[in-house]
Specification:
Disease resistance protein RPM1-like; 3-stranded antiparallel sheet; alpha/beta; 6 domains; LRR_dom_sf
């Protein structure tokens, strides 16, 4: 960076010349951007372009892949994931194999070893390993841990950061930043360095899930063993661990067998389902006394493994997507536990001993039951026999079932560092106590509140709102739209469900239209009016608008210069809606329209062949209708060009 300024002075100007400088780091490239410097990110090749490149190199004469090799060619390309460097080098190696199918199969099956050998493909490793060698120490460990996940496995941002925290890869500095915020900075830097790819982006521009490309993953696997970072077992089978100094164990498909009695592993990560077991996992926990992370997502468990209570150093416990139904009182023995992840299990009650976990940072106990559509009771939370927790460190608490227990709401006032809260089973008379509690939680970023049932009123009128709130989910009847929502200047997502606001007393659009950072708005059975008006110049940043089960709605009007950034429009089960929103033809950024169980005459007006209103939406690249069928199937129809 410091060398750029004097170098730039020596470059010729205004003579129509072009000088190209390459870098592996996107952050450096964009920091140099100015009037005379443009940044051109090198995109991964599409499948068609990748085929064209590898066929041109592998078959220099005809440039056409023989049909007999087409499947193998696609499988090899799948491992390259559009990376030009990999496609180029592999293409040249394939050109030496001729059209001999056994040779192509051999390369496909031995690609990992070829990458780390001294042959032609080693050039790929040499180039990519430079990016790894250039990492600062704290990022190397973070990156290596990502490679313990299976290839092509989307890694959730929040889950990854929780593991980094448990490993002490993220430590609090002098700048006072939260560990979670530092974790996001670390992940963004790995993405900027092109070592990590975003799998799915969140609405606010943060990566929701990410992954390491196949080629890079294959190269780093050898690094994991060379540095004694982790033993990875990617294949089916039962594996015996005989090395005493194994620090981490990652099993992608198989099961653990016998363990070395003096094993000092600090992490066991197991992915996917295994042989059924009920009372404990046959992996010899007595050999794993030093474990700090135990990740058993998707394991075939019906009961909480009894031996886990002996892992007294455990910081991270994930039993997500298992069949366990209860948690024993002995959970209170895990004094160092920071993460307890029981999402998508059958656990509905936690013992009172949970309050002894004074270091707990993340408590996730809930399940989604979604069929064709979201119902009011889609989310199943948990009850607790006593206090929730005495941990002042708690950052995430999802989803607590109140059920007339006011003490639970009052106890939350001590959770001053809480950033995300989900609370359910509320009644109208809980409103005052809840409001007093929420106004004390000044660090809340996300709040999800649900009434006891869809007829119960949520009293949310008198809240002194948390100043940093970014996501708000209100589930239940609202007698009127809370005025304080209009003051949430950091709000990016708002979902109002079963609010049933009366058009005579409360129009949600008027209160929400000036929110400066709102990106996503969902109204599900939230308004009883027959018309929604989006006024000119309003909703300046909204990207996603979802209208569902607005049973009286007949007309939506989008005035000129409203919703200028709208990219996705979703309309579900609005049976009285007479036509597509008026003014939709002015939405130049609109990319998708999705219509779920809408009347046939409504859908037919938008069909590209003869639809009377198709001319209003012909600029939208993707238009689809969905009709629910028996057996949980959907009839999907493409209405776009």
């Amino acid at each position: 960076m410091c060398s750029w300024a004097p170098l730039q002075l020596a470059l010729p100007r205004r003579n129509r010349s072009r000088i190209i400088i390459t870098t592996r780091r996107g952050d450096i490239a964009y920091s140099l951007k100015d009037g005379s410097v443009d940044v051109h990110p090198i995109q991964h090749l599409s499948l068609e372009k990748a085929k064209e490149l590898i066929h041109r190199i592998a078959f220099p004469g005809s440039r056409i892949c023989p049909p007999a090799l087409a499947t193998l060619s696609n499988e090899i390309l799948g491992k390259c994931e559009g990376l030009p460097l990999a496609i180029n080098e592999i293409g040249h190696l394939l050109s030496t194999k001729g059209e001999r199918e056994p040779e192509w199969k051999k390369l496909r099956d031995s690609l990992a070893s070829e990458l780390t050998s001294h042959g032609r493909l080693a050039n790929i490793a040499k180039v990519l390993i430079l990016s790894y060698d250039d990492l600062p120490y704290h990022l190397k460990n973070c990156f290596l841990l990502m490679n313990t996940f299976p290839p092509n496995h989307p890694i959730q941002r929040t889950e990854l950061i929780r593991l980094w925290i448990a490993e002490d890869f993220i430590t609090e500095g002098n700048n006072g930043k939260e560990l979670e915020d530092l974790g996001e900075e670390y992940l963004n830097e790995l993405i900027q360095r092109n070592l990590v790819q975003v799998w799915q982006m969140d609405i606010d521009g943060r990566p929701r899930t990410c992954h390491v490309q196949n080629i890079i993953h294959e190269i780093v696997l050898s690094q994991l063993q060379d540095e004694n970072f982790c033993e990875v077992y990617p294949d089916q089978g039962t594996f015996d661990i005989s090395k005493e100094r194994v620090r981490r164990i990652s099993i992608h498909k198989g099961d653990l067998g016998q363990l070395c009695p003096n094993l000092r592993a600090r992490a066991l990560l197991k992915f996917g389902r295994s042989a059924p077991c009920q009372h404990s996992i046959p992996i010899g926990y007595s050999s794993l006394k030093m474990l700090r992370e135990l990740h058993l997502e998707g394991a075939n468990l019906d009961m909480f493994p009894a031996d886990i209570e002996e892992l007294l150093l455990l910081r991270y416990l994930c039993l997500r997507n298992t069949g366990i139904r209860s948690i024993p009182k002995s959970i209170g023995k895990l004094k160092h536990l920071e993460t307890l992840d029981l999402k998508q299990t059958l656990v509905r009650t936690l013992p009172k001993e949970i309050c002894h976990l004074s270091k707990l940072r993340y408590l996730l106990v809930y399940r989604y039951d979604i069929k064709d559509y979201v119902a009011f009771n889609t989310i199943k939370g948990f009850e607790v026999a006593g206090e929730i927790t005495r941990s002042a460190n708690l950052r995430k608490l999802l989803f607590v079932q109140v059920n007339k227990n006011h003490k639970i709401i009052v106890a939350m006032r001590g959770l001053r560092e809480l950033r995300r809260l989900g609370i359910m089973g509320l009644r109208k008379e809980d409103g005052r106590i809840l409001s007093e509690t929420i106004q004390m939680l000044r660090n809340l970023h996300s709040l999800n509140v649900a009434a006891e049932n869809e007829a119960e009123v949520l009293d949310m009128q008198e809240i002194s709102h948390p100043p940093r709130l970014q996501r708000l989910y209100l589930n239940g009847r609202l007698e009127r739209m809370p005025i304080w929502i209009s003051e949430l200047h950091d709000l990016v997502r708002l979902r109002l469900k079963w609010s049933r606001l009366d058009q005579q007393f409360s129009n949600p659009i008027n209160i929400l239209q000036d929110l400066p950072n709102l990106l996503e708005l969902q109204l599900l059975d939230a308004y009883n009016g027959d018309q929604l008006d989006f006024n000119a110049g309003k909703f300046q940043k909204l990207k996603i608008l979802e209208l569902e089960l607005l049973q009286q709605l007949k007309m939506v009007i989008m005035e000129r210069n409203s919703l200028p950034c709208l990219q996705k429009l979703i309309i579900r089960r609005c049976g009285q809606l007479e036509q597509i929103p008026v003014g939709i033809d002015d939405l130049s950024q609109l990319k998708e329209i999705h219509l779920h169980d809408m009347p046939k005459n409504f859908v037919s007006m938008l069909e590209k062949n003869g639809g009377s209103l198709y001319h209003l939406v012909h600029h939208v690249p993707l238009i689809r209708s969905y009709d629910a069928q028996n057996g949980g199937r959907w009839d999907v129809k493409d209405l776009s060009d």
